[in-house]
Specification:
Strand order of the largest sheet: 1-2-3-4-5-6-9-10
Radius of gyration: 22 Å
Largest sheet: 8 strands, parallel, barrel
CATH class of the largest domain: Alpha Beta
Shape: globular
Number of domains: 2
CATH architecture of the largest domain: Alpha-Beta Barrel
CATH topology of the largest domain: TIM Barrel
Number of strands: 10
Number of helices: 15
CATH superfamily of the largest domain: Aldolase class I
Structural class: alpha/beta
Order of helices and strands: HEHEHEHEHEHHEEEHEHEHHHHHH
């Protein structure tokens, strides 16, 4: 199991890790598989409980559907599907927090069952959230552990020795912070120690000794975060004690919301045993970056009547269907309009599947396919020096520009994790 290799390398003081790509975007997944092939590593693709569940999630896909979807993309880019690791993130009652505990946990059991049956092997068990009839305040850690073990027991019914578990719940806000933060608190040693010990005890009480041996990671807060217009970089000195603590355990750390960290910061995270680096919005933001660049190029090559108007279509759709950003963006109307387009949290990622947007994208690509993109426009809107390209290497196609933008971001993560890893 590839995650075991990462774990073993970390315990031998080798700075190796794995990039966890949390996205269902087709261009992101295509580039993930291409870059994985370049580095000769096994890619890790993850789906979250909100994104994919037995009721379809916001993607409209069940776990089985998502696996088939990833398989179709692997076939398209000629990547061996068997080499892809599939992970389920925040699997637990998060989607059903407003329901009574027993109802929410029964749905969570079905969620776990469907994920494991579909072929997911990396399972993040997350029961940290308070449910409708739980006492007010922070959920008791013992209850969290008991519920976690309950879900692990469901997964263990399938007797799949390839299953690997992630525990722990101290994570940044999914998708980025709402406010502007000056800093975030690194997980305290006593808190992660309690999480490990209490969860282990719950597993053993539930007769899950074998399952506990396949717990490979714990989620903690290394002190990284991002929001609409800021990124809090990793500070190794702030996480030094946390880093040293895990060296005496047969686990590594999983770091969420590492989006927009520099390559150096990512390398330092992996060196400090944050071996699983999760990234999502930064990759769809790179896609947005490419589409906006293509829209600027299109505006120079075709008339307004012929244009796709992709940027305006996105704005119209986001304002008509605000449920994916309304609770996350704050400010004046002008500030909201700016955030809808340019926020690093990238709530725009939920709208690419809309039929209106798909039609505009199709028109954009058709318009650009009819015209050779002049070098002058490439220099202005898709700078070649982003990856040391020369003019003869320039991707003078829409696909090439999109590929370059996404892969540039991915390369930072794969370089931090995979410099020495080969199949």
């Amino acid at each position: 199991m590839y995650l075991n290799e990462i774990l073993a390398a970390q315990k031998h003081d080798e700075a190796r890790g794995i990039t966890s790509v949390c996205s269902a975007h087709p261009y992101v997944l295509k580039e993930t598989l291409k870059v994985s092939k370049t580095f000769r590593v096994f890619p890790l693709v993850e789906a979250t409980c909100n994104q994919v569940n037995q009721f379809g999630g916001y993607t409209g896909m069940t776990p089985k559907d998502f696996v088939a979807y990833v398989r179709s993309i692997s076939d398209e880019v000629n990547f061996p599907f068997a080499d892809i690791l599939l992970g389920g993130d925040h699997l637990g009652p998060n989607v059903w927090q407003n329901e009574p505990a027993e109802s929410a946990m029964q749905k969570s059991e079905e969620l776990i069952r469907d994920y494991v049956q579909a072929g997911f092997t990396k399972i993040h068990l997350d029961c940290s959230m308070r449910l409708a009839d739980d006492p007010q305040g922070v959920l008791d850690v013992q209850l969290t552990a008991k519920r976690t073990a309950r879900l692990a027991a469901i997964a263990e019914q399938f007797d799949n020795q390839n299953l690997r578990y992630i525990i722990g719940t101290e994570v940044p806000v999914p998708g980025g912070a709402v406010g502007h933060e000056e800093g975030v608190s690194v997980t305290k040693i006593e808190d992660v120690q309690q999480t490990i010990e209490v969860t282990r005890e719950a597993f053993l009480r539930a007769g899950l000794t074998g399952a506990w041996t396949r717990v490979v990671g714990v989620v903690v807060q290394p002190g990284v975060e991002f929001g609409d217009d800021f990124v809090i970089p990793y500070q190794p000195e702030a996480a030094r004690e946390l880093s040293r603590f895990i060296e005496s355990h047969s686990l590594v750390y999983e770091a969420h919301s590492t989006d927009y960290q520099t390559r150096t910061a990512l390398k330092n995270l992996v060196r400090d045993h944050f071996a699983i680096l999760k990234v999502g919005p930064a990759l769809t933001f790179a896609f947005r970056d490419a589409i906006f660049a293509l829209a600027m190029i299109e505006s120079e090559l075709v008339t307004k009547a012929e244009s796709s108007h992709i940027v305006q279509v996105l704005e119209d759709v986001m304002t008509k269907y605000p449920q994916h950003w309304l609770k996350y963006y704050y400010g004046t109307e002008e500030q909201l309009a700016f955030k809808r387009k340019f926020s690093l949290s990238d709530r725009m990622r939920y709208y690419w599947v809309r039929p209106e947007v798909q039609a505009a994208l199709k028109k954009l690509f058709e318009n650009l396919a009819k015209n050779t993109i002049p070098l002058a426009l490439m220099r202005l809107y898709a700078p070649l020096e982003r990856r040391g390209l020369t003019e003869k290497d320039a991707p003078f196609t829409s696909e090439g520009i999109i590929s370059e933008r996404i892969s540039t971001t991915l390369m930072d993560y794969f370089s931090a994790c995979s410099d020495l890893i080969q199949k």
